[in-house]
């Protein structure tokens, strides 16, 4: 059996999306900026996708800007607002300590150029406290960026409350919703954010397509300059097949969110409970609620995460040690470190993330395999007793 429990890294295309991408690649080859028939065909496909993305997050189509994915959307949100507000003297940027590297590294890059940056600390729940934001925010804060759902532990943040605090000082509020869009109901008006990022390949769409929702009236500078694409916000000919795929994936996800939330939460809970019962020395990292329904992060005492990941892969089970964007490094998870977990927990934790094709049979298979692997790896790390003389 092959089991894929790494949906937070990427997801397989839904059949509807794959068909739409193939059709668009083959038949809608026109440039959407061209005024002739072929160009207008492509433009109509973009408009349809824009409406679908807007509907997924309850925004207006005119506020959706297509990007190459979540990383570009995060960069665009933070850099665009920071540079637009720089002449006003607002040169303070805030994010949580458990943000994705797309946000954290963008703040570091702007810090090197003279912006002041502050990270909001979190405790072992992995949830950002509004009180900590109140302590940090200042009159010169330009933007606050806090992810809607964490990519490693799945915790959902109190975005509306954080947005109210940001707006009370005149700052903008951005949320990285890459791990929640298509999994949770999202209403940008209810969240009260100014900018929201999402990425197609996290909810069964194609890689290389994403979007930034920008509330009408938000001051921004484009980070890509050139032509007048995307209402002068993002220059460059649009990736029409990818964007069409994003639109179809958004429509499919919007129609399935309530039932998929319930189904995935039940599978995740079965997986968690089964592992905790079957494998001694295991713990859930972060608050169990509120979370996205598909994600759990579990620590295994006296087991190196990389060794367990490889052992699981040899059994046909794909999981991860954290963000796919950090794979290949030997550094412990910055999310778990920021939560204040001891070093052994930051280095012995695995993320299990489920999705569209996950089944109870797969969950039970993983629960059946893990005890043997954990026991074997623990045996390999035990020190032999000293020889008697």
Keywords:
389 residues, Aspartate Aminotransferase, domain 2, 2 domains, Aspartate Aminotransferase, domain 1, 13 helices, three-stranded antiparallel beta sheet, single chain, seven-stranded mixed beta sheet, alpha/beta, disordered C terminus
Please give the radius of gyration in angstroms: 22 Å
CA(first)-CA(last) distance: 50 Å
Helix content: 40-55%
- CA-based shape: globular
Helices and strands, in order, run as EHHEHEHEHEHEHEEHHEEHEHHEH
The name of the CATH topology of the largest domain is Aspartate Aminotransferase, domain 2
Which strand order spans the largest sheet, edge to edge or round the barrel?
Answer: 2-8-7-6-5-3-4
**Count of folded domains:** 2
CATH class of the largest domain: Alpha Beta
Tally of contiguous helical segments: 13
The CATH superfamily of the largest domain appears as Type I PLP-dependent aspartate aminotransferase-like (Major domain)
In CATH, the architecture of the largest domain is 3-Layer(aba) Sandwich
Poorly predicted regions? 385-389
Can you walk through the features of this model?
This protein is α/β, with parallel strands linked by helices and 389 residues long. The chain folds into two domains: 3-9 and 257-376, Alpha-Beta Complex (Aspartate Aminotransferase, domain 1); 15-252, Aspartate Aminotransferase, domain 2, CATH 3.40.640. It is built from 13 helices and twelve strands. Helix 9 packs across helix 13 (360-381).
